[in-house]
């Protein structure tokens, strides 16, 4: 070996020596990280909730009391999350929130809670912005943001009670908002006057106000407003062939009843999605048609690839 070669060899050794020293000197900081591994054999629930969405909806001129465009956008973002994370067995959302339930035996990210929560929250938030133009003509004036929390439920009963709680909350809030905005937009009251009018009222009182003063039968309101959206994995027969395709179906049903869980028994038994029968292609929601590539392609139909 020449003198120049020996010199370069020694410099290379010093470089790797410094690298090892630097790594061993500073790597200790990793010991401050917490493992936060979630308990095994528990349903994992990640709930994403809009932050300051009252202001966000006002600035972007959401229709009151419900904006179907905003709800469809939330559903679209949730589907993107479910397409990426296959261990999500059911999702439920209404207004500005969505709950994602991962199977009890999932080993995704080695069940590290922070990792699961942040990945789902960031994908949902970015998908919401990514698909905004497909649902709203108004330009985004500032970015929306969502907080997230993670909860563990050890039993099937706990999980069902959690989802029932969220759907009951949807009904209570929607009935109040429907009555409140009827008083304001149709009854001419100010916000403060409407709040005072509804103070202390129960469900029957609000239904009476809607029907007697505004000829609104609350039972006739769209199911998506009253019950929220349930997203389930199903397989349907493709209209263009005899093959089955796995899709994510939006449902607006009563998930509190025993009937729902009997029909969709695969949720708790953690089995593959059952077949979903439909009368015609026209009867399928646009959210499903986009997954079957039967609607005009838009950028929200581009799959977010798994890494």
From TrEMBL:
Which Gene Ontology molecular function entries are recorded, alphabetically? Answer: GTP binding; metal ion binding; tRNA guanylyltransferase activity
tRNAHis guanylyltransferase catalytic domain: which residues? 26-154
Top-rank lineage group of the source organism = Eukaryota
Give all residue intervals belonging to the Thg1 C-terminal domain. Answer: 157-241
- Signal sequence residues: none
Pfam families in the cross-refs: Thg1, Thg1C
Gene3D superfamilies from the UniProt entry: 3.30.70.3000
Q: Which reaction does it catalyse?
A: a 5'-end ribonucleotide-tRNA(His) + GTP + ATP + H2O = a 5'-end phospho-guanosine-ribonucleotide-tRNA(His) + AMP + 2 diphosphate + H(+)
Keyword Nucleotidyltransferase included in the entry's annotation:
yes
What cofactor requirement does the entry state?
Mg(2+)
| Keywords assigned | GTP-binding, Magnesium, Metal-binding, Nucleotide-binding, Nucleotidyltransferase, Transferase, tRNA processing
Oligomeric form and interacting partners: Homotetramer. Interacts with MFN1 and MFN2; functions as a guanyl-nucleotide exchange factor/GEF for MFN2 and also probably MFN1.
Reported function: Adds a GMP to the 5'-end of tRNA(His) after transcription and RNase P cleavage. This step is essential for proper recognition of the tRNA and for the fidelity of protein synthesis. Also functions as a guanyl-nucleotide exchange factor/GEF for the MFN1 and MFN2 mitofusins thereby regulating mitochondrial fusion. By regulating both mitochondrial dynamics and bioenergetic function, it contributes to cell survival following oxidative stress.
Instruction: Give the UniProt family note.
Output: Belongs to the tRNA(His) guanylyltransferase family.
- Protein name per the record: Probable tRNA(His) guanylyltransferase
Taxonomic placement: Eukaryota, Metazoa, Ecdysozoa, Arthropoda, Hexapoda
